Amino acid sequence: MTDNRKKTKQTADTPAALPAALPRLLLEWYDHAARVLPWRKDHDPYHIWVSEIMLQQTGVEFVINYYVRFLEAFPTVKALASADEQEVLKLWEGLGYYTRAKNLKKAAEIIIRVYGGYFPETYKDILKLPGIGPYTAGAIASICFEQPVPAVDGNVERVISRIAGLYTAEKNILKKQVTVMLSDIYPDKRRGDLTQSLMELGALVCVPNGAAKCGNCPVSEHCMALKTDAVSLLPVRQNKPVKKRIKITVFLLVCGENLAIRHRNKGGLLSGLWELPNVEGHLTENTALETAAYWGTRPSAVGGFIRRKHVFTHIIWDILCYTVQCAEQPPGFTWTDRRSLADLYPIPTAFRKLL
């Protein structure tokens, strides 16, 4: 046991070197294979920052329209810093992981207050901003400021694991290995392009789950996984924790043309957003009517129910939704028509799809 731990630590601290030809091959491939994406039109750190935050846990094609709309509304760091948080969250509606949007605004305020409106240029200072971790800091530092700092995400880990034949199972150790290995090969020029070429290779060619397009790979001759028929085995998969399932009952409280919504509490899941009234657990139709009556809505009828499932990162909501016709609009809720609901209030997808 002790010997294995020592071997793992030694491997993490002194990983094998990557082929010296890797940067040249990747850059030559990137020059003709790179996708045309709106955030690649320039190296403005504000643009790269917004795109990288949006792309966390979210696919490129889904992000493009959000990115364009976001920059139209907030074309500069100053515009974002001075915006109302609810306006920012409304533009983020449907992207999920709303803490990302809140941290964007917080970081924009810091950039205005601390850095005079100029984006910090060093990896160390970029890393201090809310919502920015080592990957995003590395992406901004290399793409915008040509610093030799790798941006290591799941795509890049997969690419380097296969090229170098890394069988490391521990996620944190693997990230450290890959970061060290890449740091040693960053060229004097085009460092940002090298960062993006690695991302692009992982997104388009060196894809997961045994679907890699090795015949299209510019570095296949240097790939240890291909040589040893281990492409589908790398990186080593870790068992994902079982998501906790939570039952909730959601209410579509309808009074005339209006629906009831309420502001979620600060802190916790979906904090600060708007929601349809809900309680934990699955209620019967009679209990749902009693609950609506307790809220002061004077309910008259339940118009049927909907069952939905919504998956978050760590939990799954098992949703039972009742439509309840009401005679009163008690002040405990905000009552709004559907158009205002669509235009003004950021509603998470978990609730929006029930509408």
What percentage of residues falls in helices of 4 or more residues? Answer: 40-55%
Number of strands: 7
Give the H and E element order.
Answer: HHHHHHHHHHHHHEEEEHEEEHH
Report the sheet-strand fraction: 5-15%
Span between termini? 56 Å
Helix/strand/pairing category: alpha+beta
Mean pLDDT value: 93
Number of helices: 16
Tell me the radius of gyration.
24 Å
Would you kindly provide a written description of the structure presented here, covering whatever features stand out?
- The chain is of the alpha+beta class.
- About 45% of the residues lie in helices and about 15% in strands.
- The chain has 16 helices and seven strands.
- Strands 1, 2, 3, 4, 5, 6 and 7 form a seven-stranded mixed sheet that branches.
- The longest helix is centred in the N-terminal third of the chain and has 17 residues, at about 100-115.
- Residues about 1-15 have low confidence and may be disordered.
Describe the SSE topology.
Elements: H1 2-13, H2 22-33, H3 45-55, H4 60-73, H5 77-81, H6 85-92, H7 99-115, H8 123-127, H9 134-145, H10 154-164, H11 171-183, H12 191-204, H13 224-227, E1 244-255, E2 258-263, E3 274-275, E4 278-280, H14 285-294, E5 299-311, E6 315-326, E7 334-337, H15 338-344, H16 349-352
Parallel strand pairs: 1-6
Antiparallel strand pairs: 1-2, 1-4, 2-3, 2-7, 5-6
Helix pairs in contact: 1-11, 2-12, 3-4, 3-9, 9-12, 10-12
